[in-house]
Amino acid sequence: MPVGIFRVCLVVITAIVNHPLLFPKENGTVPENTEEIIQKMKEREESLRLEQLRLEQEIADQEATQKALKKAAEVVEESKEEKFRWDMWTALSMVIFLLIEVWRQDFQEGNWQDTGGEEDDMAVLGKAFKGLAFPDKAVLASFYEKRILGTTGDMARMREMVEGFADDLLEALRSVCNRDADMEVEDCMGVGSMYENWRVRKPFVCDLIVPFAPPEPYCFRSQTWCSGDSFPPDKQGYGTIKVCRANEDVTGCICDKTKLGEDMLCLLHSQANTTRPSSEMEDLLCFKNTQYLDADQVMKWFQIAVTKAWNRISHKYEFDLSFSLLDSPGALKIKFKSGKSIAFNLTPVVQYENSDVYFISHFPRSSLAADLPSSIHWFLTFAVYERRFIQLVSKTLPANACHVSCLQILSFLHGKQCSLTGPSGLTNYHLKTVMLHLLQARPSQDWAPEKLEARLQDMLKFLEKCLHEKKLYHFFIGNGKVPAELGFPIIFQRAEPLNLFRPFVLHRDVYRKTVDTFHEMLRNTSALINEYTVHIPLAHTNGIHKESL
After folding, report:
1. Taking burial as the number of CB atoms within 10 A of a residue's CB, which of 28, 234, 366, 479 is the most buried?
2. Beta strand 184-185 pairing with 189-191
3. Mind listing the UniProt keywords for this protein, alphabetically (predicted)?
């Protein structure tokens, strides 16, 4: 801008200096043609005026440009300030969110099992109980004696018979297997409701698990979802099993990744220890072209081995043995000539390290199940620890404690309701999990036999709360209060709690059906209990049960 002003001043001074009035008429150098000079001066003055206008326009343009630049700078500065404020609020929101999440995790870890300990908490729950007439102590006691005890009296004899036959069958299986190439089968163990004495629904089915191990020189190396490896959210509770040589490094030797010269040998691995070809890995029941144990291959091998074993010892027995369910590969049925039958499950499992946690090759799936997992993902079962926990706690409870009675009545009511309205997302395992949580949360004296009615209502209210929140945590996983006497693996105690109701979030139709079935069961509780209490005498019930076996 100063340059423009200077140029204007220069033009004005030049015009003044060259003005004709500054030259006196006496000057002899003045041209005689005055009119021509005047005309030229006018033209010169006009050109100077145009130049002045042009310069003024340039100055105006420069001022406008500067104003625009200044305005743009202000806008940029404002946007920076606004962005800074936005970034600050975003960061503050993230910090608040993280603090809330940390508090939630701490609260959850410290209190996720503290249910039932406060009567006020139970009073807030149980909205579905309003207006319902719940059976009193006398009716419940009569119902339990006539309907539950009357149908479960011979379970011990059935367990003994099934275990004896299973031991004989597995001994025959070992004799038909190739000890150098086939899997090594160990003794079976009884788990589940039949061995925890709360099974009420017929047909009574014994669940037996059979640990097995690979032939020498191989071993199993397992990985779980909580061992630090990457498992998707839908594979929580699962793990994988890798078949390796006993002296093989889990991480693998560099000789497997680098071409050593023909005259060079690995000091750790000789030619005798080279990996088996893929065909032989499949002989070890691995998934195709991998070292991971295939659950489907294991079940096929086990079914063939059981069939061979039965053919060897069938002449000793006066009954037939067959596989009973297509969707449950380990389901077997003993058929007597009289037409009666006994069902039991014989399922191969793999031990997790040196614990009593097992990878189970086949696990019954409910309507909550999403897509079937791949055959290299094995579900972990804690059934042995669950049985031990119930036995351990039972020693501290009053005589004839009502915890098993509550679970049996709840299982009976739920089974009857599902037979009327169809299956729901709830299973007997969910009901047992509820009992385990309350067993840990409530004092021992609260499970006295005369408190059957109160504890049954607590279980129903706790289940209602879990359904409302879509949260029922696995009893052992993430539970830091597991008794040390059980010797439970610490890795699972430190894991994140596993929500058994997580599939309800994904399957809203199943969730809706489950809630409706639960509420319908509550409405029908008094009618069902009163009906069976009045119309089923004890002697008649015992007679029917003995005929069925």
Report:
1. 479
2. unpaired
3. Cell membrane, Coiled coil, Glycoprotein, Membrane, Nucleus, Signal, Transmembrane, Transmembrane helix
Please check whether residue 83 lies inside any domain of the structure.
no
Closest CA to 385 of 471, 459, 493: 493
How many folded domains does the chain comprise?
1
CA atoms within 13 A on the CB side of 459: 28
Residue whose token pair is 């037996």: 208
Closest CA to 287 of 277, 296, 299: 296
227 within domain boundaries? yes
The Cα diameter of the chain in Å comes to 159
- SS3 assignment for 239-281: EEEEEEECCCCCCCCHHHCCCCCCCCCCCCCCHHHCCCCHHHH
Q: Does a structural domain hold residue 289?
A: yes
451 contacts 401 by C-beta, under 8 angstroms: no
Cα separation, 190 vs 209, in Å, equals: 7
Which structural domain, as residue segments, surrounds residue 415?
Answer: 126-247+279-534
- pLDDT tens string 190-226: 999 999 989 888 888 999 999 999 988 889 999 998 8
Q: Where are the beta strands (DSSP E) in 292-405?
A: 319-325, 328-336, 341-351, 358-360, 378-381
Q: How far apart are CA 437 and CA 442, in angstroms?
A: 9
Q: Confidence band (pLDDT; 50, 70, 90) for 139? A: confident
Q: Is 455 left (phi over 0), alpha (psi -120 to 50) or beta?
A: alpha
* CA gap 26, 24 in Å, rounded: 5
Q: Residues 243, 217: contact at Cβ < 8 Å?
A: no
CATH code for the domain in which residue 184 is found: 3.30.460.90
- Using DSSP's 3-state secondary structure scheme, residue 293 falls into strand
- In sign, the C-alpha dihedral spanning 123, 405, 363, 328 is negative
- Main-chain phi, psi angles of 521, to 5 degrees: -65, -40
Round to whole Å and give the CA distance between 235 and 373: 8
Checking if the pLDDT of 179 tops 80, the result is no
Whether 515 contacts 467, CB under 8 Å: yes
Place of tokens 């004839």: 400
The average pLDDT across 171-179 equals: 89
Q: Write down the residue that tokens 């423009």 correspond to.
A: 4
Cα 496 to Cα 188: distance, rounded to the nearest angstrom: 31
